[in-house]
Amino acid sequence: MLTKQEEDFIVYWAKQRDTYRQSFVEFVKGMSVGLGISAAIIVVVITGWFERANMVANSKMSAIVFALALLIITVFMAWLYRNFQWENKEQQYLELLAKRDRSKPSTLEEPLSDTINHNS
User: Fold this and answer.
1) Which of 21, 58, 93, 102 is the most interior residue, by most CB within 10 Å?
2) Contact 26, 88 (CB under 8 A)
3) How many CB atoms lie within 10 A of CB 82?
4) Could you report the per-residue pLDDT of 18-42, keeping only the tens digit for each?
């Protein structure tokens, strides 16, 4: 037996499952995670926490390449977050459908002797 909240989720996800993967709102939520990682990288570089890495980065890498790498990290994390959320909701949806189908009474529970034709 499903709760009201589970039934509501089934109805919601049946309508939203196709458009959720292209959802810009979920992409923006994921961008916050990517921006957090990028901010942590910037803090590590600015504070000089790892001196040797800073020396190599300053001598061999331009600021444009560094900014591009941070942008790529941010976009990838946003994409990954959105797909991860979609997969979680899809799995929950399929589990609830299976739970609902198991709780329905089966029509095949008739005794086997009633379904066999006796020709004698």
Assistant:
1) 93
2) no
3) 22
4) 888 888 888 998 899 999 999 998 8
Task: Please state the domain extents for the chain.
Answer: 35-97
Instruction: Write down the residue that tokens 């939203």 correspond to.
Output: 16
Closest listed residue to residue 93, CA positions, set 12, 4, 30, 1: 12
Mean pLDDT of the chain: 84
Angle at 103 between CA 97 and CA 105, to 5 degrees: 120
Tokens (6 digits) for 9:
């989720």
What separation in angstroms does the CA of 79 have from each of 4, 10, 76, 88, 116? 31, 24, 5, 14, 57
From residue 89, alpha-carbon distances to 13, 42, 53 in Å are: 8, 33, 40
What would the 3-class secondary structure string for the chain be?
CCCHHHHHHHHHHHHHCCCHHHCHHHHHHHHHHHHHHHHHHHHHHHHCCCHHHHHHHHHHCCHHHHHHHHHHHHHHHHHHHHHHHHHHHHHHHHHHHHHHHHHCCCCCCCCHHHHCCCCC
